[in-house]
Amino acid sequence: MEHLDGNAAAGELSEVFALDVTTAVATCAGCGTTGPLAQAMVYEAGMGTVLRCPACDSVLLRYVRGGGQLRVEMRGVTVLRWRSEPR
After folding, report:
1. Cβ–Cβ < 8 Å for 74, 60
2. Where is 11: in which H helix or E strand?
3. Is 87 inside a domain boundary?
4. Alpha-carbon distance 12 to 35, whole Å?
5. Residue 12: is its pLDDT beyond 80?
6. Separation CA 81–CA 84 (nearest Å)
7. CA of 54: how far to CAs of 42, 63, 77, 79, in Å?
8. Does the residue 76 lie in any domain?
9. What is the pLDDT of residue 87?
């Protein structure tokens, strides 16, 4: 099977990254709790922002701005999903 480069996914991924992330339902990699990301506990730290699971306090997501970049790390989220509207 031939593969394409990452540009082939730009259209689909632009739908995801244009959505309101607080309406997304996240599954915690630590405890398996599933719920809206809006229910996460948010901590503003000197090095960025940390979102923690409201059930087990595991880190779900981190983001930081600096050096002209925005960095997002989501290793604490196993699945992030939105309700899909029919096309």
Report:
1. yes
2. helix 10-16
3. no
4. 23
5. no
6. 9
7. 10, 18, 13, 16
8. yes
9. 59
Domain housing 44: 6-81
One-letter amino acid for residue 84 of the chain: S
* Rounded CA separation 80/82 (Å): 7
Phi, then psi, of 37 in degrees rounded to 5: -60, -25
- Name residue 17's amino acid: F
Structure tokens at 40: 């996460």
- Read off the tokens for 71: 């960095």
Return the DSSP state at 15. H
pLDDT in tens, 31-77: 999 999 999 999 997 879 999 999 999 999 999 988 999 899 999 99
Give the torsion sign (CA, 36, 39, 44, 47).
Answer: negative
Residue of 70, 57, 30, 62 lying closest to 45 (CA atoms): 62
User: Domain tally for the chain?
Assistant: 1
- Which H helix or E strand runs over 2? none
pTM to 2 decimals? 0.80
